[in-house]
Sequence to fold (296 residues):
Amino acid sequence: MIKTEKMFDSKMLTSFHIKSSLSEYSNIKIGGKASYLLAPLSFRSLSQIIKEANKGDLEILPLGGGSNILFGNVGDRVIILDAFLPELFQVNSDVVTVSANCKISTLIDRAMTLGLGGLEFISGIPAHVGGAVNMNAGAFGKSLFDYLSWIEYIDHNGELKKKTHKELDHGYRITSIDGFITKAAFKLQKKKQADILAEKETIINKRSTRHPYDFPSLGSTFKNPEGHYAGRLIEDCQLKGTQIGGAQISEKHANFIINKENATFDDVMSLIRLAKKKVKERKNINLELEIKVIND
Ligand SMILES: Cc1cc2nc3c(=O)[nH]c(=O)nc-3n(C[C@H](O)[C@H](O)[C@H](O)COP(=O)(O)OP(=O)(O)OC[C@H]3O[C@@H](n4cnc5c(N)ncnc54)[C@H](O)[C@@H]3O)c2cc1C
Fold:
């Protein structure tokens, strides 16, 4: 590990080697120290990091808003923050191109001031564009790929590539993107600012009525199985409000696990296992994780 750390230090002159805890970067506020938590300041540096990681046979993990990642033991993974990379917001007619580190809320708000809408359905998600595109984030029957034109990304060899919507496989909270997204372009709709604002407020109100926004979480823990809602299945197993250590299956929405008080990785994983077991026993349905669990 010391050998590879030196290797990074010699190459990553424009990167920070952050010593802080991963809990600061995950929305559920759980996570310990990482061997490599790097925050490149330029795409050149990002590309160098990826090349070096590849040479050292180390897995890279892009980190955006951290609103879907549960950190356990991250081992020697090279965790790369998007936060200090250059920012971009460009408009060409109804196509908006943004850097991956742009917050989804900023994208929606800035597009709204230009009379461009469509993405209001994901208002209230604490995500960055890169993470949201990688997950094909969605809600209320729509997903980000409905509006995506193309992405630019750095592949595992450190090369900058561009792919159009057509060239990317995608599905329910899944995409074929393999690399670090740097930019994404969305074809939006010309709309009245007032209509966009009204739609956005309606969505945010719906979310705050249904979802537990008062405690840290990662949103929906499980994907909805075909024809079912994961939250309803868990609720039917009487698991709402179940607490293990500091983690709890939310009393408000059973598909949300919240960090009620100093929850640990193991607390959350115990609840995940419990929900999967009960739903399998009572409903004969296998719940599949939506959140990304990073653990050796
Ligand atoms: C309160 C709350 C509500 C939520 N509601 C919804 C919802 O309605 N719909 C929904 O879909 N999700 C929802 N989520 C989950 C989450 O916001 C989404 O999955 C979002 O897309 C993750 O974006 P992020 O930037 O936080 O990604 P992260 O959590 O940082 O990363 C998620 C995944 O994307 C990868 N990634 C991150 N950045 C990049 C990049 N630049 N290039 C390539 N890969 C990258 C990561 O490695 C990881 O695999 C919610 C979460 C919370 C906390």
Q: What stands out?
A: The chain has three domains: 2-81, 89-195, 212-294. The two ends are 16 Å apart (CA to CA). The longest helix spans residues 265-283.
